[in-house]
């Protein structure tokens, strides 16, 4: 049977991210975690492949234990196995150190036929983890695919880029990120599975479980470093008008005429 | 005529930039990224090299713009197998060049192709990679890169501990410039034993049906944010756009809400605009948004909050309800 691996990320719910004005660090307490919305299409694609070809889906996520509910959400959609990659040594990882942990875990799960990810997270938003993980694994990669199907032993993917759509044939196993626009319909969680998952817990893999080299992990294993975080100063440069909407709109129209956007 | 040169004889320790050529067309962002890189290269006393992969010289349509580019040299790698973009092969070609020329920096436009190969290279070579940077500077002989981060107006400055320093550069963050001095064109000859094989085979290509967005080149942009409250109000921007011959833009949350297609998003995750007049209804002016419109010639903000960052940045701000002002404006203009 095919094995499909899906990587998902927990991200702060938009609007709950607060920056401490003094220390310029993120206030983690106020953050509410959600499943990265761009990972939903990857889960949907995996489940459709499972329905079509029969497969076992494993979902992996690197992060602290508060992402366990997100793994369970994925389970309720129809995946089979949940693995949390969690270790204090993983903290502070940039994309390289994140990709390294994912690559080690994926290797441990081999043989597999497909690894799917989201195009990008909505917090770090680098879109780097998929190809970087593939680079570490020496696996072919495609980013932003809309469709994936089998033809004999080959995988056929539709990839969308700035120019159009390419149909691409791949003979081996493959790592791909899925376009956020891939599907018009994303299935809701199944009630039965929601109940089932209450009894289930994900496997937890630490650094030693994936035989990771300590110097490649977390902050220590991250070549990119934030050296400064600062607020962009805005100087007041324009005119600020207050008053009745009627007056404001008159002034508005005057300016549009001045700028020759509308004719007199 | 272009000079042929063996891979091992190429100049070393340069700043390399990826020149994205797709079906013979040079992506404009490849020229944009040369603008900041030229300054960096001069300060560090390095040469700036644009590296282009294609199937042949004849297949490239934009040789003229390459001749006027800021690069000191343009290196071409030609091979029939490079006709289609293949992530693994393109990355391997770049890795060969990096291994044999020891560059100080390697930069890519943050196009989908750039974001496909730069991380592959970083993964294979274990290098740091900064994403979507929109400013670069030199401090103590080190390249410092900046990108907006979460939070309203917070910018993070990043460095990379590994050499070459690698980054992808936001599309539209810099304007392309031309140079009087024509770069030296070189065709790089790869070793006999280099394998041009790929695990990927491009079977067919279908040009996108979607019209390329005219937003990025629009003379007038009317944009809306959450302050417009709902989709119905947002849709009225299209009426205004028609009257003003403008294009409609949006902030990220309203695209995610489904008020309008994501193609209309302005900012770091969307399009960069440089219109004569930008009008923002109910937009707070978070840095991720303003990074995509701050070079507009004249900015008008409509907001209930006098303290909103966009109000502070605007040339003219109207303090009031966005919907009311939009309705009134439409009424008057239609008359
Ligand atoms: C504002 C900001 C700027 C940053 N800039 C940089 C930078 O320039 N360079 C850099 O190297 N790092 C950077 N980082 C760190 C980076 O965001 C983290 O390393 C993060 O762990 C992974 O990157 P991403 O969120 O950008 O993922 P993306 O590459 O955008 O995510 C794509 C997909 O990868 C998978 N994925 C990502 N993370 C995980 C995970 N933890 N577990 C399972 N699957 C996952 C998901 O399927 C996801 O949809 C930045 C972080 C922040 C907050
Ligand atoms: C990694 C990352 C990337 C991002 N990329 C982008 C991007 O590319 N583009 C983008 O736009 N955003 C982006 N964002 C989101 C960005 O940070 C802001 O959250 C977003 O721009 C805010 O949108 P807004 O102005 O519509 O909403 P809000 O910030 O909620 O602002 C609404 C504004 O409307 C005003 N208002 C309220 N009621 C009224 C009324 N009745 N009349 C008039 N005004 C009113 C309020 O005072 C406020 O100023 C990104 C965020 C992250 C973390």
From the 3D structure, determine the CATH topology of chain A.
Rossmann fold
Strand order of the largest sheet of chain A: 9-8-7-10-6-1-4-5-11
Q: Pairing-aware structural class of the strands and helices of chain B?
A: alpha/beta
Number of strands of chain A: 13
Termini distance of chain A?
A: 72 Å
Distance between the termini of chain B: 63 Å
The greatest interface here is: A-B, 83 and 88 residues
Unique ligands: flavin-adenine dinucleotide
Largest sheet, strands/sense/barrel of chain A: 9 strands, mixed
Number of structural units classed as domains of chain B: 2
Give the count of helical stretches of chain B: 10
CATH superfamily of the largest domain in chain B: HUPs
| Helix/sheet category of chain A | alpha/beta
Write a brief structural summary.
The complex is a heterodimer of chains A (264) and B (335). Chain A is of the alpha/beta class.
How would you portray this structure in words?
In chain A, a hairpin with a 2-residue loop joins β7 (141-151) and β8 (154-160). Chain A has a nine-stranded mixed beta sheet with strand order 9-8-7-10-6-1-4-5-11, with helices on both faces. Chain A has a single domain (2-216), classed as 3-Layer(aba) Sandwich (Rossmann fold). Chain A is an alpha/beta fold. Chain A is built from six helices and 13 strands. Chain B is of the alpha/beta class. Chain B contains ten helices and 19 strands. Chain B has an eight-stranded parallel beta sheet. A five-stranded parallel beta sheet of chain B has the order 16-15-17-18-19. In chain B, strands 9-10-11 form a three-stranded antiparallel beta sheet, with helices on one face. The radius of gyration of chain B is 22 Å and the shape is elongated. Chains A and B meet through α3, α4, β7, β9 and β12 of A and α4, α5, β8, β11 and β14 of B. β12 (224-231) of chain A pairs antiparallel with β11 (154-160) of chain B. The complex binds flavin-adenine dinucleotide (FAD) (2 copies).
């Amino acid at each position: 049977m095919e094995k499909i691996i899906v990587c998902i990320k927990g991200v702060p719910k938009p609007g709950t991210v607060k920056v401490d004005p003094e220390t310029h660090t993120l206030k983690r307490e106020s953050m509410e975690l959600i499943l990265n919305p761009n990972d939903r299409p990857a889960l949907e694609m995996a489940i459709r492949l499972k329905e079509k070809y029969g497969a076992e889906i494993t979902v992996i996520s690197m992060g602290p234990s508060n992402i366990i509910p997100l793994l369970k959400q994925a389970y309720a959609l129809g995946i089979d196995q949940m693995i949390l990659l969690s270790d204090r040594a993983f903290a502070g990882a940039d994309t390289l150190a994140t990709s390294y942990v994912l690559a080690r875990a994926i290797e441990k799960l081999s043989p597999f036929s497909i690894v799917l990810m989201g195009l990008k997270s909505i917090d770090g938003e680098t879109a780097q983890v998929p190809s970087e993980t593939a680079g570490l694994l020496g696996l072919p990669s495609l980013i932003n695919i809309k469709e994936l199907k089998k033809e004999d032993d080959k995988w056929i993917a539709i990839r969308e880029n700035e120019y159009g759509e390419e149909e691409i044939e791949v003979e081996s196993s493959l790592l791909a990120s899925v376009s956020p626009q891939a599907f018009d319909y994303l299935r809701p969680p199944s009630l039965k599975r929601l109940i089932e998952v209450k009894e289930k817990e994900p496997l937890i893999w630490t650094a030693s479980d994936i035989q990771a080299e300590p110097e490649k992990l977390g902050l220590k294993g991250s070549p990119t470093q934030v050296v400064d975080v600062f607020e962009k100063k805005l100087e007041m440069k324009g005119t600020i008008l207050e008053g009745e909407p009627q007056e404001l709109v008159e002034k508005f129209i005057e300016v549009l005429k001045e700028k020759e956007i509308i004719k007199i | 005529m272009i000079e042929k040169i063996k891979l091992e004889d190429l100049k070393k320790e340069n700043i390399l930039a990826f020149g994205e050529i797709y079906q013979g067309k040079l992506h404009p962002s490849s020229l944009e990224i040369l603008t900041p890189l030229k300054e960096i290269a001069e300060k560090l006393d390095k040469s700036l090299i644009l590296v282009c992969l294609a199937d042949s010289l004849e297949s490239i349509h934009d040789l003229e713009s390459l001749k006027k580019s800021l690069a000191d040299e343009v290196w071409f790698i030609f091979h029939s197998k490079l006709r289609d973009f293949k992530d693994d092969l393109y990355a391997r070609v770049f890795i060969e060049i990096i291994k044999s020329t020891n560059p100080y920096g390697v930069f890519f436009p943050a196009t989908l192709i750039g974001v496909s190969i730069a991380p592959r290279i970083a993964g294979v070579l274990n290098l740091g990679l900064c994403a979507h940077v929109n400013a670069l500077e030199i401090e103590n002989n080190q390249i410092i890169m900046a990108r907006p981060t979460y939070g309203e107006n917070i910018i993070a400055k990043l460095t990379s501990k590994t050499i070459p320093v690698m980054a992808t550069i936001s599309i539209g963050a810099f304007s392309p410039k031309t140079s009087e001095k024509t770069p030296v064109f070189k065709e790089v000859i790869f070793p006999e034993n280099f394998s041009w094989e790929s695990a990927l085979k491009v079977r067919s290509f279908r040009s996108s049906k979607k019209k390329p967005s005219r937003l990025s080149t629009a003379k007038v942009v009317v944009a809306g944010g959450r302050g417009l409250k709902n989709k119905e109000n947002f849709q009225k921007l299209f009426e205004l756009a028609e009257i003003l011959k403008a294009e409609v833009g949006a902030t990220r949350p309203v695209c995610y809400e489904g008020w309008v297609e994501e193609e209309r998003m302005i900012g770091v995750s969307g399009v960069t605009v440089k219109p004569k007049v930008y009008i923002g209804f109910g937009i707070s002016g978070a840095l991720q948004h303003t990074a995509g419109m701050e070079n507009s010639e004249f900015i008008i903000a409509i907001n209930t909050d006098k303290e909103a960052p966009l109000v502070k940045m605007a040339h003219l701000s109207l303090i009031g309800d966005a919907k009311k002002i939009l309705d009134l404006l439409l009424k008057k203009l239609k008359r």
